[in-house]
Amino acid sequence: MTPMYDTLADLLITRFQVDAGEIRPDVTFEDLDMDSLFLVELLVVIQSDLGIKVSEDAVSPRDTLERAAEVVDEQVAASTQRS
Amino acid sequence: MTAIAVTGLGLVTAAGIGVEASWAGVCAGQSAARRDPALAGLPVDISCTVPGFNPAEHVGRRSVLVHDRFVQLAIAAAREAVADAGLHPRTWDGARVGVVVGCGLGGVSTWETQHRVLLNEGPRAVSALLIPLLVPNMVAGHLAMEFGARGPNLVTATACASGATAIGTALDLLRAGRCDVVLAGGSEAGVSPLIVTGFAQMGALSRRLNDPAAASRPFDADRDGFVIGEGSGMLVLERAADAVARGARIRASLAGYGATADGHHMTAPDPDGAGLSRALRGALAEAGVGPGEVDHVNAHGTSTPLNDAAEARVLRESTGRRAPVTSTKGVVGHTLGAAGAIEAAFTVMAVDTATVPPTANLEHQDPTIDLDVVAGQARKQRIDVAVSNSAGFGGQNAVLVFTAP
Fold first, then answer.
1. Contact between residue B73 and residue B187 where contact means Cβ atoms under 8 Å apart
2. B129 and A37: CB-CB below 8 Å?
3. Which residues in chain A have their CB less than 8 angstroms from residue B126's CB?
4. Which residues in chain B have Cβ-Cβ distances shorter than 8 Å to A37?
5. Most buried among B39, B231, B303, B365, by the most CB within 10 A?
6. Cα-Cα-Cα-Cα dihedral sign, residues B62, B132, A33, B145
7. Angle between helices A36-45 and A3-15 (to 10 degrees)
């Protein structure tokens, strides 16, 4: 998996009390009992810890962790191109 | 009047986690107050916090993320109370189960932490969970989720009387037939730097900083303020006929409730104690007992000079010198919105075990207080009628009367 996937997994374990054993690329946020409110909180943490701004509608609870990591990477790439 | 039964109890206090540990601590009369490293550098740095409370262990792994501490303490106490009542959410009709919880402050630690984030890191770093963590009504909401309790659900705020107000409100709900079971109590986790400083600035807290275990000393001549505490107390209440029908053990009956306002001052009690006196007489009348029949009083007894003097006058005039009085705040401190519920649970235990706990640190009883305040050792005696007093800043008074079943 990508470095961003590993970073995301680490945030879920340390900040969201997700059991490490539940984390897999194909697991969705819904599978982890994380609804849209938790997802917004995850985006707040990503912004404050990693300095990456991800728009609220870019990730949904039905997305897998692998997909979420890709979205975050896409946002980084987009903001790099803009600057 | 429809008889109301107390069939379950749950406690999380500075004296211990669980009813057994809390009651043993209170009966031993040893104050739980300590220096608190989280308050270092503040004008007052002593508190009665719950020792060894681990939210991940006592509530659940994700609790640290989704619950402020006042909710964590409530969930732990409520689980014990429901189990103690021999009830299980799988077997009850959740639509007929109410929840009423007293809380004076809400999620103040969350508030303080996130305000710091706002100032230091800016608005984008503020938690999306700030509001659901801090609003005081969320404690009742979480208990509804925890137990599938989908009847009346509310939080009462009458400052330091909140927990007693919640239990009195539950009595009314049961008598009105609005539900069949109520989980009623109080919870507070107000030992935060800002709140403690606020109480210190008012002059409400004891300054006996070098001897914390002696700081909370209700009715003692040398009392100089309260020690802030945290905790939760929960009662399961049902109509007595329902409790008998299902073969439940009844620990005590909740026989009367009195609620009044002083209409006098923001923080000082009415020096004549007229409001508290009316609440006490009203509660006793509802219970159908005379003031002279009271066998035990669990006093509000905060250890502030003003409260204890005013309350003692009310007790002397109404219940006389016969009833042994105690203030369990000597051991567990003043838990603000939880106090009325924690003390209600202790009062039920007093009735159930025929024991009056001692008032910690009562070495030289204030000579102006002409009451039989129990000092030193717990006193074994039959208790048919027991009173629990509560009074809050704002002049709100709530008195509960418990009787032997």
1. yes
2. yes
3. 44
4. 128-129, 132
5. B231
6. positive
7. 110
B241 touches chain A (CB under 8 A): no
Here the tokens at position B16 are 């211990």
Tokens representing B272 are 């004549």
Active site (annotated) includes residue B300: yes
Is there a contact between B167 and B258 (Cβ–Cβ < 8 Å)?
Answer: no
Q: Would you say the C-alpha torsion A28, A31, A35, A38 has a positive or negative sign?
A: negative
Q: Which residue has the tokens 């599978």?
A: A31
CA distance B254 to B264: 29
Q: ipTM value of the model?
A: 0.88
Residue B176, number of CB atoms within 10 A of its CB: 10
Per-residue pLDDT at B272 exceeds 90:
no
Q: How far apart are CA B306 and CA B317, in angstroms?
A: 17
The alpha carbon of residue B139 is apart from the nearest alpha carbon of chain A, in Å, by 18
Q: Which chain B residue has the Cα nearest residue A50?
A: B125
Q: Strand ranges (DSSP E) for A1-83? A: none
Angle between helices B339-353 and B162-175 (to 10 degrees): 70
Indicate the pTM of the whole model. 0.96
Q: Establish whether B334 is a catalytic residue.
A: yes
Q: Can you tell me which residue has the tokens 């690329």?
A: A25
Helix (H) or strand (E) holding A15: helix A3-15
CA distances from B294 to B117, B275, B291 (A): 52, 19, 6
Which residue on chain B is closest to A56 by alpha carbon?
A: B128
Report the pLDDT value the prediction gives residue A26, as an integer from 0 to 100.
97
Q: Per-residue pLDDT for B157 more than 70?
A: yes
Pick B64's closest partner by Cβ from A17, A40, A44.
A17
Length of chain B: 405
Catalytic residue among B27, B160, B179, B296: B160
pLDDT in tens, A26-39: 999 999 999 999 99
- Whether B296 and B356 have beta carbons less than 8 Å apart is answered as yes
Considering only CA atoms, which of B304, B310, B112 is closest in space to residue B227?
A: B304
Q: In this complex, which of B64, B124, B129 lies closest to A47 when CB atoms are compared?
A: B124
Catalytic: B296? no
Q: Report DSSP state, residue B119.
A: H
Chain B segment 102-131 residues within 8 A of A by beta carbon are 117, 121, 124-129
Q: Helices B69-84 and B138-147 meet at what angle, rounded to 10?
A: 40
* Helix or strand run (H / E) with residue B177: none
Predicted local distance difference test score (pLDDT) of residue B221 = 98
Query: Cβ distance B268 to B296 under 8 Å?
Result: no
Residue with tokens 């109890």: B9
Q: Are B351 and B261 in contact (CB under 8 A)?
A: no
Q: Do A41 and B125 touch (CB under 8 A)?
A: no
Q: Which of residues 54-83 of A touch B (CB under 8 A)?
A: none
